[in-house]
Write a structure and sequence with these properties.
about 45% helix, alpha+beta, 4 strands, about 150 residues, elongated, two-stranded antiparallel sheet
Length: about 150
């Protein structure tokens, strides 16, 4: 039997890399790799958070982010049990000041202060999944130390 790409336990499900939640329409060629149910489920809220803040940050400039926001993100924000995510996002709203080259204030835009630890956890999971898929190898014993150098403000 295959092993979970995250913890090397016996895999009893398949994980999408990246998570299906990052797409408004799931592509037919999305990568799936062996995972255990515990690892598969343990990232759900972090992935939902990450998807929400990325869609929010990219809303003004990316049609795909707008479509994702207006569909899956809005639906998930009003789902029962996700009150904490709504409150957390409101607490992390910030103003982003835009200045021109002459150092004149142009406009203030809304933004979200990203919880770096949560974002890094999801990014590491995606990188590990892509690595396993592309090398067709296990990650047992590999520490991915180079990922730990990537730090965000938390």
């Amino acid at each position: 039997m295959a092993e979970c790409y995250l913890c090397n336990a016996e895999a009893n499900t398949r994980e999408h890399v990246p998570s299906r939640g990052f797409f408004d329409t799931v592509p037919g060629n999305i990568i799936t790799i062996p995972a255990c149910a515990n690892c598969n489920a343990s990232f759900a809220k972090d992935e939902e958070y990450f998807r929400t803040v990325v869609a929010a940050q990219c809303f003004a400039v990316c049609p795909a982010a707008r479509k994702l926001w207006k569909g899956q993100v809005v639906r998930s924000l009003w789902r029962v049990g996700y009150e904490g995510l709504r409150k957390r996002l409101v607490r992390h709203l910030i103003t982003i000041e835009i200045w021109n080259e002459q150092k004149q204030h142009v406009v203030d835009l809304p933004g979200v202060a990203v919880e770096g630890g949560r974002a890094a956890r999801v990014v590491r999971k995606i990188i590990r999944g892509l690595y396993c898929c592309n090398t067709k190898s296990e990650t047992r014993g590999q520490r991915f130390d180079y990922l730990s150098r990537w730090r965000c403000k938390t």
